[in-house]
Amino acid sequence: MAQVPASEVSFGDIEAAAVRVRAAGLSTPQIVAPVLSETFGAHIRLKLENLQPTGSFKVRGALNKLASLTTEEVSRGVIAMSAGNHAQGVAYHARRMGMQATIVMPLDTPFTKIRDTEKLGATVVLEGETLAEARAASERLANERRLTMIHPYDDPLTIAGQGTIAMEFLAEFPDLDCLVVPVGGGGLIAGICVAAKHLKPNIEIIGVETELFPSMRNALRGESHRMGGRTVAEGIAVAQVGLITQAIAGEYVADIVLASENELERAMLTYVREQHLVVEGAGAAPLAAIIKESDRYLGRSVGLIVSGGNVDSRLLSSILLRGLTREGFLVRIRVEIEDRPGELAEIAELIGKSGANIVEVVHQRLFSDIPLRQADVDITLETRDPAHVAELLGSLASSGFTARLLNNTAGS
Question: What region, left, alpha or beta, does residue 336 occupy, with left being phi > 0 and alpha being psi -120 to 50 degrees?
Fold first, then answer.
C-alpha cells in the first residue's frame, strides 16, 4: 500500500480518527447524482459534508485535534484562525468538551460565519485584512494568553480527521476511479490522499482551486500565478498552503484545476436547481471543475466532495438572480412610448398576453435623450426562455412599439 512522505500521516491515524468521527455522529451521506451524471456524461457521486452540524467538513479535523489535548491544555483554552468553517468546527467541539475557544477572523469575513461561530460559544476577534494578517494576530494572542493553537490544515491530526471522508466515500462507492476535491490550505485533499490511495492505489485525485488563489498549484508546479481578489469561494481563498499538505499533495495529486468565478457561480446554481442543495463556493469547486473540463470525466465514476454549505443568503440570492438573467429567464427590456395616458397600459396588456410576468417598471422621462413628448420604459420580466423573449419583442414591434433587450447575457 502507498505510504505518505516522511510518515507525517498514516492510514492508521485516519482509522483512529474514524472511530472518533463515528462516535460523535459526524458521518455524512454519499449519494448518486443522476441528473448531474446525465448532464455531464459521467457517473457522479456526491459526499455531502454540507450536512455536518456546522455545515462543513471541518468538524472532523477539529474533533480529532481537540481530542488529543491534555487536561492542562483544555483548561487554558484554544485559539484558531479561520475565515469561518474551521472556526465553527473548533467552536462546536470546544463547547462539547468544556473548553473556551477564541477565533481570529479577517475583517471581511461574511457576517453569517461570524454570527454562527459566536452562537457556538466562541469569542470572535476580527483582525487583519487577509488570512495571513489574521494568522499573525492569532499567533500573538496564543503566546500572550497561553492558548493552544488549532491549525486549520497543516497539522497531522487535523489532516487525519479530514481523511475519514474518503474512507466513508469509498466504503459506499468502491467503484470510484476519480475524486475531485476543493483545495485551500490543503488539509482536506491531503487527508483524502492518504486514505484513498491506501484503499485504492490507482484512484485519481484532482484538486480544485479558485483562479484568484492558486496557491497549491503554484507550490506544486513552481508557477507564479497572481493571487488575490474577492471570490465566492472564500473558504479556499488561502494564499499559502501547509508544508505537510504540500508534501502529501505533491506525491499523490494528479492535477490542480483552477476554476473561474463564473464556473463557481454556475456550480452553486446547478446544485440548487438540480440537486436541491445549498452549497458554498468552496464546496461547489469540484463541480466547477466538471463544468470547466467535462470531457475529462466522460464515462468515469467520479466522486465530488461537497465540502460545505455555509453561504451568505445575500450572496446566494445574487447568484440565483444572476443565473436567471444569464439564461434568459429574467430580462429587462426598454420600450419607447408616447408620453400620454393609456400607452403603458397597452404595453402591459401585450406583455400579459405573451405569458411573461412583469417584475418591475421604471418610467424614464428625465435621464434620456429621446424627444420631450416621449419616454423610455424599462421593464424587468420573468420569461420562459430566450425564445420567449424574442417572441415578446416581435409582438411589441408588430404593435408599433420600439423595444430592445437591455441585458445582453440571455442565452449566453
Answer: beta
The grid coordinates of residue 338 equal: 408616447
Domain 5-56+155-322: assigned CATH number: 3.40.50.1100
The helix (run of H) or strand (run of E) holding residue 351 is helix 343-354
Catalytic residue status for 58:
yes
Task: Give me the percent of the chain exceeding a pLDDT of 90.
Answer: 63
Q: What pTM does this model have?
A: 0.86
CATH code of the region 58-149: 3.40.50.1100
Q: Is 301 helix (H, G, I), strand (E, B) or coil?
A: strand
Question: Catalytic pick from 82, 215, 307, 354?
Answer: 307
Active-site annotation holder among 47, 58, 197, 292: 58
Residues of the chain with CATH 3.30.70.260: 327-405
pLDDT tens-digit readout, 49-64: 999 999 999 999 999 9
Hey, CA dihedral for 66, 71, 77, 79, is it positive or negative? negative
- CATH fold group of domain 327-405: Alpha-Beta Plaits (3.30.70)
Asked if 27 is an active-site residue, the reply is: no
Which tens digits make up the pLDDT trace of 216-228?
A: 999 999 998 898 8
Q: Taking a C-beta distance cutoff of 8 angstroms, is the pair 335, 348 a contact?
A: no
